[in-house]
Amino acid sequence: MLLCAQALPVFGQEEWLERARAFLTQQASGLGDDVEVTLYPPGAHFPECRQPEPFLPASSRPPLGRLSVGVKCGETDRRTRYLQAEVVVIGRYLETATALEAGERLTLAHLAERRGELHRLPHGTLRAPQAAIGQVTRRPLAAGRPLLSHQLRAPRLVDRGDRVTLEARGDGFRVTRKGEALAPGGRGERIRVRLEDRRILEARIVGPGRLVVDN
Fold it and tell me: Taking every annotated instance into account, which residue ranges of this chain make up the domain SAF (predicted)?
């Protein structure tokens, strides 16, 4: 009687398919406003499954579009079942509201928010205005197109040939040196700097004409 009381529940195909659907819905819920999951069961009938545990095969991609989902069965049944699914997420993304020239610094007026199926958008499509405002276009962009992260760069805080200040910090000390920037760059970018003694160091831009030498 004790063994019967502790036995794991058995799920039929419809029940563990529904568990897989709920798992994918939960995984995609933070990606947009609306989530729709379609499962494509295999042609053959899957046997019953004890304690089904859905999972996604290792991937760095968000769970969008056509994908595979696995279901592990617990206790003595160690088999793993796989099935195809499609996850459609409707969410907001950014488009260019106007045509843009190379080197333009983006403001809210340059952006338009749209809603659509996220898995159909190009990789790197920006979804929040704060990710684009203040950035600079790398090349001309047409109006009405999804705005992509690689099309933008941080505004330049240092130009090649600028006189810059380098700062190095450690436990109980802070040292500053003057130098010449050997390349342009924006906040967070690393460039080479020639010091007054002709040595060349690599440093990270933290402000206009200011760089930090990371330990």
Answer: 91-153
